[in-house]
Amino acid sequence: RISSNEKTDWGSIWIGAVVVFFTSAQSSIYFSSLWPYLQQLDSAATENFFGVITAAYSLWNAIASPVFGFWSNRIKQTRIPTIIGVLLTAIGNVLYILLPLNIVTPKYMMMISRAVMGTGGGTLALLRSSAVTASTANDRARAISLNTGAYSLGVTVGPALQLLFTPLSYPGTRLVSSIWLNLYTGPAISGLVVNAICLTLLYFVYRDSSVGLHKVAKMENEAHERFFALPKFDWVAVGVCLFTRFAQMLVVTNLETIGSPLSMTMFAWDRETAVFYVALMQGAFTLVGFIIFAANTIFDFGPRMNHRLSSIIGLLIIVAFHLLTYPWSFLSGKIKYQEETWFNGTEPVGCRRSFDWCATTPPINKYVYIVSYSLMVGTSFALLAISMSTVYSMVIGPRNQGTMQGILIFTGSCARMTGPILVSSLFVQSGIAIPWIIEMLMCTFGVLLWVVFYRRLVPLKMEESLSAGDRYRNKHGMVYKF
Questions:
Q1: Keywords assigned by UniProt (predicted)?
Q2: Which of 144, 124, 16, 154 is nearest to 60 (CA)?
């Protein structure tokens, strides 16, 4: 192996983190306003179709992530594929802005827009792998934390940014013809500005770096090469991380998906009130995550953290949140149907008459829901984003991680794809009781996996760290250390 005195390319890592933040924020900024806007454009739209729209982003993100990863590995760079991804995201924003023009039925146009944006978001895996390849072994944990923190912060801050556009109200200010700037189109219009910033950084400033890649000298023959090839990583440990990622993103996506329908049904909020409070709640969620990410970046807790224990704690906090906000039968009160209460005499608020479960399900306390969501889920999301992602990258080792990080993003995208369809259907049929039980069981199972395989969730052991008599397996077979 070639020794190197190269240093971590922090400039590229920071630029990558900025692009990751902006891209992930755009993926989630619509969540608090998507359902009210769909109802505004098409009052006959159902919660089930809303689940399909939400899943469209994740479906195409799941498809694009490994494809972009494979392409990046083939051309040995992340810059060009990432630029293409940002351009696709911009196209998705344009389509969203054009919704009121009825070029295509609004609900289908909304679905297409989200699908295009999901495809563009597939490049997030590339920027995560670049944080690994651009950092030395000593700085890798911090580089990974910075990148995953930027992604997680973007995902959580996105819905909170909706607060900036809520004062615009609806229909807002006419820009050109039937194009309006209001609380619904504001995120897409601002997204185009962000896309321009990202393209400028990627084209003129960002550079690919391979400081952290395992460098091997040219070998005389395969017998010689086998002693220098990277050991194979533990697929069981990788599987535990992938399941944790799936469970984490399933919970967060489901909460984002039914956040507005749940609050409008349970708390009898009108559309604008729901947009405001869901965004406000997400803002508090983001603040908690930001404090944790910032503290970890500034004080570099990574080397001193037990990332395995932190991941277990993160999953347990999610279970505790669901226990606190479950509609237990001993709770008092009744969910009001739309016919029983009106807002300003025009917009019906409360539970739809078709939801039979409202008659037998007690309402959850809105203050408990808002506070526990903001503090507990925010803390859990940050802990898992930092610790689980760090464990995953360490288990894989200093190889080109484009494909493997693509698989991690793919797993999260599968959760974001299946979750909205499942939870929106279950919400229509039975409220939040069954979705809450499913999520609690998944996170509890995740805790058991981390406990059972605790000793296998460790960094990849390199050949130079092994002692005489140790052995490991690489692509050439079993290698023994003498």
A1: Membrane, Transmembrane, Transmembrane helix, Transport
A2: 124
Closest CA to 159 of 377, 458, 336: 377
CB 461 within 8 A of CB 237: no
Q: Are 431 and 361 in contact (CB under 8 A)?
A: yes
pLDDT (tens digit per residue) in 160-201: 677 788 788 788 888 887 788 888 888 889 889 999 999 999
Residue 340: is it exposed, middle or buried by C-beta count within 10 angstroms (0-12/13-18/19+)? middle
Least-confidence region, from 60-64, 85-89, 166-170: 166-170
Q: How far apart are CA 187 and CA 196, in angstroms?
A: 14
Hunting for tokens 């992340």 — which residue is that?
Answer: 78
The closest alpha carbon to 62, from 422, 424, 408, 400, belongs to 408
Residues 6+ apart with CB under 8 A from 217: 1, 2, 228
**Chain centre distance of CA 316:** 19
Contact 314, 384 (CB under 8 A): yes
The backbone region for 45, taken as left when phi is positive above 0, alpha when psi lies in -120 to 50, beta otherwise, is: beta
Residues of the chain with pLDDT > 90, as a percent, come to: 21
